Amino acid sequence: MNENNVTPQTLCPVARAETVVGDRWTVLILRELFMRSHRFEEIQAQTEATPQMIAARLKKLEADGLVERRSYNKRPLRYEYHLTEKGEAFYPVVLALRAWGETWFKSPEEGRAVHYTHRSCGKPAGLGPVCEGCGQTLRHDDLIVEPDPAYQAERQERWEAFKASR
Amino acid sequence: MNENNVTPQTLCPVARAETVVGDRWTVLILRELFMRSHRFEEIQAQTEATPQMIAARLKKLEADGLVERRSYNKRPLRYEYHLTEKGEAFYPVVLALRAWGETWFKSPEEGRAVHYTHRSCGKPAGLGPVCEGCGQTLRHDDLIVEPDPAYQAERQERWEAFKASR
DNA sequence: TATATTTCCTATGAAAATCATAGTAGCATA
DNA sequence: TATGCTACTATGATTTTCATAGGAAATATA
To answer: How would you class B3 by CB atoms within 10 Å of its CB: exposed for 0-12, middle for 13-18, buried for 19 or more?
Structure first.
């Protein structure tokens, strides 16, 4: 994995961002955090990465300031992972990635994986970056997220397969 | 490198997108194409990747339909790389990445790497996704791109260093 | 004619990351 | 005592990446 460079080599913000998020597993972990999976096991099950991949990336994400670890249980000590403000600020990238993926990687008969409703106007938000209904810029905490039944089932199944394999 | 899966494993558009662009070099190559570097050597110089990295990724980007190779010279046969419509459509992701990078990876004394002017309203476009001046969604071909002198110098220097090393 | 130069890559071997698989630590519950 | 739960770590084979060098096919220059 790419160690974070202390002195930035370039002024380019895309290159700097990529030293942190230029990795498939990292982005999938961030997706899971936005999907409100906060536990190691949930993230592992839904990304289908090995535990080392998850562990290494969570550690780096924490070092890079996108993620913080919160203990939700002493004895035995257990942690959950949450996005920091910097991590939350990554949302527009995920949204843009989603829009691109929905547009260019789906056959017509496949529906959207997730349906968004814009809380402030009550209308479907569409693919962004601005709300289809009211034109406002979409923010993560202003969206009601509803996984499509098919996607929900897929996630459910992945979780069960994961559980069964222990 | 990740071979493209014929049957998608998931409905998640982010995961599907990441099988194509979930890689640092790939994103940097796309950035260069948006910066109007179309030649192998320019891309190599500005990304500072090895030629195999570039060659392999350009090949995959072509297979994935984001990039097309155009011969600009017979005898000797020479190619340039250009974005397809699918590749151009990736722009919002780059823009979001840039905004995040500019916001979270810069000290106050460092300026923006690139300045955008919105062609249709003539005002500075800001960090997007919508124009700071007029509120419209930013499109790549509607932006006048002006690298900051410092960033320009950095790129110039990289090119010269590359040339000198041959 | 001979020698550079330009451009786009390919070859090679060492170093690092990744993967599948298995296992550990600490505690709770039956 | 045994079984389960959760968050990881260990190991060894496989794959990818990196640094460095080189090649091929033509034109330009001496």
So the answer is: exposed
